[in-house]
Design brief:
114 residues, four-stranded antiparallel sheet, 11 strands
Length: 114
């Protein structure tokens, strides 16, 4: 059974930092990524990292967020710096297996106060 467990959300002031983590189990994961969904908005892809370490970022977070993955366990981190109030959202990790089937974490709230 595939399971993704997220941690690391919380409340932070604008300009601050948070680090999210997501640990996966139960499958071989080729691509790991993070999405977020703000109230009243669609879920958006913000960062991905492939098995080979290639990363991609949404323009809205480029230069402020860094995605990385562990070498041993199926773990992905999202380091978020220079946070803005508009970064407030529920953040979801998303892993894809070798057949590109997606799996989702439970979501973690990130709130950035101005």
């Amino acid at each position: 059974q595939v399971q993704l467990v997220e941690s690391g959300g919380g409340l932070v002031q604008a300009g601050g930092s948070l680090r999210l983590s997501c640990v996966g189990s139960g499958s071989i994961f080729r691509i790991m990524g993070w999405y977020r969904q703000a109230p009243g908005k669609q879920r958006e892809l913000i960062a991905t990292v492939t098995e080979g370490g290639i990363t991609n970022y949404a323009e809205s977070v480029k230069g402020r967020f860094t995605i990385s993955r562990g070498n041993v366990k199926d773990t992905v981190w999202l380091q978020m710096n220079s946070l803005k109030p508009e970064d407030t959202a529920v953040y979801y990790c998303n892993f894809r297996n070798q057949f590109m089937k997606p799996y989702w974490g439970q979501g973690t709230q990130v709130t950035v106060s101005s």
